[in-house]
């Protein structure tokens, strides 16, 4: 996360927000340091906020439900999740016109915001790495757009293949 | 296979006398920066230049990775041939933003442009299979233009910002 903080500082920022889940607030402080003010926003929390945390990489069957667009195991729906994430991020945008804002959050949050921008109903379009940076930009004349997804500081071991967690096509062979 | 697209460096323009594509005023540092990044990462199996504007960027990457750039048509359809020829490998393709955008739109299954302002030497990683599976790993990643070893000492950093100690950007 320190390398991620270096990337965020290089870009510069005017305000820092984080989901109120501990994994997000602690990531914000690890990346940017304990003295940087971080505003917690409950509606930036992941869809699993009311459930026990289960690593995506553990490959539990329940994640297949997520990949298929079903959030009922977590007591919510895709539309409810999309609505609260988009509403939260739009509120931040309106309060910070012309500024650069960091929002430390979760893979599901990033994905559903991306899908909303692209006009897609999918819950998951890509697999954000832990500590990665995805950038979105807003222009008054053109709305939201993607600027960058899953950017990482250069810490990957030479020659190491990228982590590939299936998005929606479990069993795909990358040959 | 892992397919990595690198958008060619900024403002490649045709040299009137020589007929060659040359970097624009701000593009001179970008190709070396992405070349250092990809050279440090290593483990590549092949390098392609999709169209003449990508040749200089591919040459810089070739020098850093030890690969000789191969020429490829600057079309999204030509990428399918690259995928077919390199099962299980890691392949670099230098291309123009239009080709990369077409690849990304097909992978996401969307009609509209995905990245409105793609950056020169932005890196787009895709997992691809001969069976037609495509998965975006990263999109327009420009960390090499912004921070970190081994990408320091980049002269004329046109994407740089001045910062105070809190990290707040200064105009």
Mind sketching the topology for me?
The complex is a heterodimer of chains A (175) and B (171).
Chain A: H1 2-11, E1 15-19, H2 22-32, E2 39-41, H3 61-67, H4 78-95, E3 101-104, H5 107-118, E4 133-139, E5 143-151
Parallel strand pairs in A: 1-2, 1-3
Antiparallel strand pairs in A: 4-5
Helix pairs in contact in A: 1-2, 4-5
Chain B: E1 2-7, E2 13-14, E3 21-22, H1 30-41, E4 46-50, H2 55-65, E5 70-72, H3 76-85, E6 90-95, H4 97-108, E7 123-128, E8 134-141, E9 162-163, E10 169-170
Parallel strand pairs in B: 1-6, 4-5, 4-6
Antiparallel strand pairs in B: 1-7, 2-3, 7-8, 9-10
Helix pairs in contact in B: 1-2
Report what the structure shows.
- The complex is a heterodimer of chains A (175) and B (171).
- Chain A has five helices and five strands; from the N terminus they run αβαβααβαββ.
- Chain A is of the alpha/beta class and 175 residues long.
- Chain A has one domain (2-151): Phosphoglycerate mutase-like (Rossmann fold).
- Helix content of chain A is 33%, strand content 16%.
- In chain A, helix 1 (2-11) crosses helix 2 (22-32) and helix 4 (78-95) packs across helix 5.
- The two termini of chain A are 32 Å apart.
- Chain B is of the alpha/beta class and 171 residues long.
- Chain B has one domain: 3-Layer(aba) Sandwich (Rossmann fold), CATH 3.40.50.
- Chain B has helices at residues 30-41, 55-65, 76-85, 97-108; strands at residues 2-7, 13-14, 21-22, 46-50, 70-72, 90-95, 123-128, 134-141, 162-163, 169-170.
- In chain B, the strands form three sheets. Chain B has a six-stranded mixed β-sheet with strand order 5-4-6-1-7-8, sandwiched between helices.
- In chain B, helix 1 (30-41) runs parallel beside helix 2 (55-65).
- The longest helix of chain B has 12 residues, at 30-41.
- The radius of gyration of chain B is 16 Å and the shape is globular.
Q: CATH fold name of chain B, please?
A: Rossmann fold
Q: How would you sum up the global shape of chain A?
A: globular
CATH superfamily of chain A: Phosphoglycerate mutase-like
**Number of folding domains of chain B?**
1
